[in-house]
Amino acid sequence: xxxxxxxxxxxxxxxxxxxxxxxxxxxxxxxxxxxxxxxxxxxxxxxxxxxxxxxxxxxxxxxxxxxxxxxxxxxxxxxxxxxxxxxxxxxxxxxxxxxxxxxxxxxxxxxxxxxxxxxxxxxxxxxxxxxxxxxxxxxxxxxxxxxxxxxxxxxxxxxxxxxxxxxxxxx
Length: 171
Fold this sequence. Notes:
This protein has helices at 106-117, 123-134, 140-150, and strands at residues 30-36, 40-42, 49-65, 70-82, 89-91. The protein is an alpha+beta fold. Among the domains are: 28-94, no CATH class; 104-151.
């Protein structure tokens, strides 16, 4: 049987973005438009129906498309409201997609925490893994913040450096 020029099982295929030094050379993001635009929304403080004041767009980074090898960005059109009863200003709820003020979806943060807590990857390699396999760039310090907030990291004594039998202070 003849082998074709295409890759087969077990063949090494390098990451096409490895060695790229310019952001312009990276793959373009796949943009998905979502809408959370409502004429009226109940006020979270008092429950009064609040009319829409304006619209804004919030962009969220999501796990990329492995078939295209491209990052995925969610562009969410949000309505902002002002309550006539209590005067509170608020945006339409996107808590099902991302935490408040986050640039990343829940899927990204859960995967990052799982890579560190369950698979035992250090923060920097976890950041690289997210880019290489899922095409989402997350700074390793952000991953560290997520892991510490989740309380998932198995802490090892400072002096031991995680080496068995090194004891306190490495003596």
